[in-house]
Amino acid sequence: MKVFLIAGEASGDKLGAALMAGLKTLTEVEFSGVGGPMMQAEGMTSLFPMEELSVMGLVEVLPKYFHLKRRIRETAEAALTAEPDVIISIDSPDFCLRVAKIVKENSNIRTVHYVAPSVWAWRPGRAEKMAKVIDHVLALLPFEPPYMEAAGMACDFVGHPVVSEPRASDAEIAAIRAEHGLTDMPVLLVLPGSRGGEVNRLGPIFGAALEQIVRQKPDLRLVVPTTAAREAQVMRLVADWPGRPVVVAPEGDVETDAQRKRAAFAAADFALAASGTVSLELAAARTPMVIAYDVNRVSREIIKRMLKIDTLTLVNLVSETRAVPEFNGEFCKPDLIAKGVLEMMKNPGAQLEAMAVTMERLGEGSEAPGLRAARAALGRMG
C-alpha cells in the first residue's frame, strides 16, 4: 500500500508519526510526502523542510504567499506522480486542502484529512468547502463527527495521540531536575510557541510578565523546552529573562528528545504556554498552566469577529470547564498574565479534575489513537 502524507507543523508531525506507526502494524505500507522529524523517523523522506509551512495568522502569511503557492503545486504534483492509494493530510488546512483540490481535479485518489476543522469555534462554512475535496475525516475530539457528517464527509473520532504517549518516570523527572540544578526550588515551564513568528511575538510579552512573577517569587526557576529549529532563537530570547532560565534543547535522537521533553513537562510545578496542542501535553503531565496567545493586530480583529466560543484552550473545551486561565488577543498583556500565573500558583489543584476529564474523553486507557486512526483510514477504503 502507498500512502502520501502531508503535515505542516510540529503538532501535525506528531499526529502523522503516530498514524504511520499504526499503519505499519496493520499493513505493508510505503510512505512519501511532507513531514517533520518524527514522521521522518517512521520512514518518510520529506519533499522539503516541513518548517516552511509553519506560518500562523492571516497577515503573517502574506510575505510568504508566492513561496507557499509554489510548494502547494509541487506537493500536489508529487502526490499525483506517486499515485498513492490514499492521501492523508494532517491539520494545516490552508495548505493541505489546496493540495487536495489540485489532486481531486486531476485524479480519483482518495483523500483523508486528519484533524477536523474547528467549525464549532469559527467559520462553520469550512466543512462544506472541505467536503468538495476530502472524502474522510479523522477527528481528534469526540463531539466533532456530526459536524463533518452533516457536510457530507465520512468521519471517525480516533482520539488524540497525547493520551497514549509514555509518562515520565520518577527517575526521569529526578534526573532532569538534577541535570539543571532544579532539585529544591519551584519550576515554571515557559512555552512561547513552536513557530518562529510566535516566539518573536509572544517572547517579549512572556519576558515582561516573568519579570513581575520572579520579583514576587525570587526562588522560581524557569525551564524553556525548545526544538532544533527554534533553539538559537529561544537562546537569544531568554538571555535577558529573570529566573536563570534553563533551555532544554534537543540532542538529535528523536526518542531521547521526546523523553527529555516529557520529563521537563512533568518536572515543572507550573506552566505558562502559548495556546495550542501543548495544553494537552501539559494536561497529560498534570502540570497546571496559564495560556496566553496573540497574533498580528489585524489578524486578531478579523479572528475575534469570527469566533463562536469563549475559550481557545483544548482542556477547557474538552472538559467543558473554564479551569485553565487564558489571556488571548487584547488580554495578552504582561500585567494580566503575571497576575494570572501568580493566582494559579496559589491554587494549582483547581485544574487537576479538568485535566483528568480531558484525558479520559480523549481516549486515555483505550487503544492507541494512532492505531485507531490507521484502522479508521483503512476501514473506509472498501
Give short descriptive properties of this protein.
single chain, 382 residues, alpha/beta, six-stranded parallel beta sheet, 47% helix, globular
Describe, in plain words, how this protein is organized in 3D.
The protein is globular. Helix content is 47%, strand content 14%. With 382 residues, the chain is of the alpha/beta class. Strands 2-1-3-4-5-6 form a 6-stranded parallel beta sheet, with helices on both faces. It has a 6-stranded parallel beta sheet with strand order 9-8-7-10-11-12, with helices on both faces. The protein has 17 helices and 12 strands. α8 (170-179) crosses α11 (254-267) and α9 (196-216) packs across α15.
